[in-house]
Amino acid sequence: MKGALLFLAMTTMLCFCSRADADTFRCGAKTVQVGDSEVSLSNVCGEPARKVDIEGSRSVVSGSRVIGKANYHAGQKWYYNKGPKDFIYVITILDGTITSIETAERGY
Fold it and tell me: In angstroms, what CA-CA distances link 73 with 12, 52, 55, 56, 95?
């Protein structure tokens, strides 16, 4: 019984410590949300601490045969570090539009 309770407690803690998704991100008194443009994010929140390109790949087809793969720039992840009392926020941008807002580890 003790083992089951310990397992349940540990699983619950892991759920609370894992990455969380959000629909909005606050910068000062303003917010941006999923669906807003990259330009809006930049205007409201400024430059992020880091930008990482997202690469995609798609099949190259000739007739009915796949003859290879082609890589392309799919978008970016922008990282906003809100300091040690908050989190690092990861904003995913695809085709110039915010598609997700996630929290990562504690800021620094």
Answer: 38, 11, 5, 6, 10
d(CA 78, CA 58): 24
Which are the contacts of 82, defined by CB distance < 8 A and separation ≥ 6?
88, 89, 107
Domains identified in the chain and CATH numbers: 22-106 (3.30.1450)
Comparing CA positions, the residue from 90, 72, 76 lying closest to residue 38 is 76
pTM here is 0.70
Distance in angstroms (rounded) separating the CA atoms of residues 48 and 51: 7
pLDDT in tens, 20-39: 567 899 999 999 999 999 99
* Tens-place pLDDT, residues 48-107: 999 999 988 888 898 899 898 888 888 999 999 999 999 999 999 999 999 999 999 999
| Contact assessment for residue 75 and residue 93, using Cβ atoms and an 8 Å cutoff | yes
